[in-house]
From TrEMBL:
InterPro entries: Invertase/methylesterase_inhib (IPR035513). Keywords: Signal. Residues 1-23 form the signal peptide. It comes from Eragrostis curvula (weeping love grass). SUPFAM superfamilies: Plant invertase/pectin methylesterase inhibitor. This is Pectinesterase inhibitor domain-containing protein.
């Protein structure tokens, strides 16, 4: 490529990146600061704090889809981390008595939740929200199913509770998007 062509390509890529970062991606979805978004989406101080932790590295002001996408991605990463921990505990023989089948089932449930949250991320990035409510619901249901199987105080129970909170935050942020798109 010639120097001028490279410059044009870089300019286009930078423009596209700026659109994504500022959130000018979906018609009709509001732009807010992340603090305003957290205030509108969160009904408890704990959820507000989780929201702030999740969005603090995002643009100060962006389209709400940017924030919903960030929360979906954080939830998906948390699911992966929990599955990794469950597998380590199973392989290391450190699963509390009789909970091995529950941990194995949780790995399956988390895989389902991960698939659904990946769908949410795709929806937010592509401004296509036809399946989004269902995806949030199925992700939350999968994590609830896992949590139901775990004994209180087991190593995975604490992680599951935190992951459910993160899933609900993602859903609450997504609801702000869906309010304007449905």
């Amino acid at each position: 490529m010639e120097g001028a062509e490279v410059t044009v390509v870089l300019a286009v890529l930078v423009s596209l990146a700026a659109l994504f970062v500022t959130g000018d991606t979906c018609d009709g979805v509001p732009t807010m600061t992340w603090n305003e978004t957290c205030l509108r989406a969160c009904s408890t101080p704990a959820r507000y704090n989780l929201c702030g932790e999740t969005l603090q590295h995002e643009a100060e002001r962006a389209e709400v889809t940017v924030y919903a996408l960030a929360a979906a991605r954080r939830a998906a990463r948390a699911y992966d981390d929990t599955v990794d921990e469950a597998e380590r505990l199973i392989l290391g023989g450190k699963v509390p008595g009789g909970e091995r089948p529950a941990y194995q089932r949780c790995i399956v449930d988390y895989g389902a939740a991960r698939t659904e949250m990946a769908g949410v991320a795709t929806d937010m990035a592509g401004c296509d929200f036809a399946r989004t409510r269902r995806e949030y619901w199925f992700a939350a249901s999968a994590l609830n199913g896992c949590g139901f199987l775990l004994k209180p105080g087991s190593p995975l129970a604490t992680r599951n509770a935190a992951d459910r909170d993160l899933t609900m935050l993602a859903s609450d942020l997504g609801a702000l998007v869906l309010l304007h798109k449905v």
